[in-house]
Design goal:
By secondary structure, the chain is an alpha/beta fold. It is 26% helix and 22% strand. It is globular, with a radius of gyration of 16 Å. The relative contact order is 0.25.
């Protein structure tokens, strides 16, 4: 049965987020708010949790999952990026963008794309998620909370709890988020390419 943590969107209660971190470290998948839509998150190195996240989403290993980082200081540990791409990342973070980049060896092979060896990277601009990442002390693995057969992310925390009661460890309720997911920018090739147009404006990157 999923726990339900109602937190203040701008000043979340630390004691509740610490309970959420404990669940993550125990192998749970959580539903959390972001600056785009609600997302599913889990521990990066927990194979069972990653498998559960994929089951909830109904996606296979070829679907790009995303590493959520607090800021770009953690970037080099998880993705390979040159100076030009780093400057582009600085222009669009934090914010509702997901960037596809080549993964480093710090990313478990079962998490990155099996052929391309790429992974999503995102620096969210949301107080609750930033606080959760800070308390966790490491990036989290994430996917937009869109259920199989549906086009839009789930947005109502009560509905998320009702529909995923036995599939997630907890729902962090900070109020409704946008129904629009992130804009996805593929940075793994020679040119930047918009893969999905979402909430983030590609003009921030000159696209």
């Amino acid at each position: 049965m999923a726990q339900f943590f109602s937190v203040h969107p701008d000043n979340p209660q630390v004691r509740l987020l610490k309970q959420a971190v404990h669940l993550l470290n125990q192998g749970s998948v959580l539903a959390v708010p972001t600056d785009s839509s609600y997302a599913l998150v889990c521990h990066l190195d927990d194979k069972n949790a990653v498998d559960q996240l994929r089951r909830i989403r109904g996606v296979d290993e070829k679907h790009h999952l995303t590493v959520l980082c607090r800021d770009l200081s953690e970037l080099a540990n998880y993705v390979k990026v040159d100076n030009q791409r780093f400057r582009a990342l600085k222009q669009a973070t934090p914010g509702p963008f997901t960037f596809i980049l080549e993964a480093t060896k710090e990313i478990p092979r079962r998490v990155s794309h099996p052929q391309r060896k790429t992974i999503g990277l995102r620096v969210p601009d949301h107080q609750v998620l930033q606080a959760l990442l800070a308390l966790h002390g490491a990036p989290l693995l994430a996917a937009t909370l869109i259920l199989p057969g549906e086009d839009l992310p789930l947005n109502d925390p009560e509905e998320i709890r009702e529909r995923l009661e036995h599939q997630v460890g907890a729902v962090i309720d900070a109020g409704a988020c946008s129904l629009e997911p992130t804009t996805i920018i593929d940075m793994s090739g020679d040119e930047l390419q918009v893969i999905r147009l979402g909430q983030g404006d590609p003009a921030r990157l000159g696209l």
